[in-house]
Amino acid sequence: MATINPYQTYQQNSVMTASSEELTLMLYNGCLKFIKLAKKAMLDKQFEEKNKNLLKAQAIIQELRSTLNPDIALSKELEQLYEYQNNSLMEANMKNDAAALDAVLADVTELRNTWKQAMALAKQ
């Protein structure tokens, strides 16, 4: 009999009941988490762990990119930014470039903070 992990159940329920705005915020937070984990692994010379976390961050960026609405003007700029971030993560992975990770981390942090502000304004 398999044991049920309460934390996994909570996470699954959180995703299943979240609004699209909350899901986007979760994606940004997840991306930040995986970039930070990858940087730590890079500095600790745990290259397999670094690669695993950067691939997860790239998958999140691709998911964010796939949700863009082409009818909205801002989507074109965001698509270019996501493409740049994805390429930067790939290059950082190949070259073990912590500075490139820091740059993407700063970009994603700014996007996440802006998204949180937009969510707060929309609730008012």
Write the SSE topology.
Blueprint: H1 6-17, H2 20-43, H3 47-66, H4 73-95, H5 98-123
What does this structure look like?
The chain has 124 residues and is mainly α. The protein is 85% helix and 0% strand. The protein contains 5 helices and no strands. Helix 2 runs antiparallel to helix 3 (47-66) and helix 4 runs antiparallel to helix 5. The protein is globular.
Short structural summary:
With 124 residues, the protein is mainly alpha-helical. It is built from 5 helices and no strands. The mean pLDDT is 92.
Question: What key phrases describe this protein's structure?
Answer:
124 residues, mainly alpha, 0% strand, globular
Note the gap between the termini: 48 Å
Helical coverage, percent range: over 70%
Roughly how many Å is the radius of gyration?
Answer: 16 Å
Strand content: under 5%
Q: Number of helix segments? A: 5
The tally of beta strands, per DSSP, is 0
Query: For the residues shown, what is the average pLDDT?
Result: 92
The helix-and-strand class reads mainly alpha
SSE ordering:
HHHHH
Low-confidence stretches: none
**Coarse shape:** globular
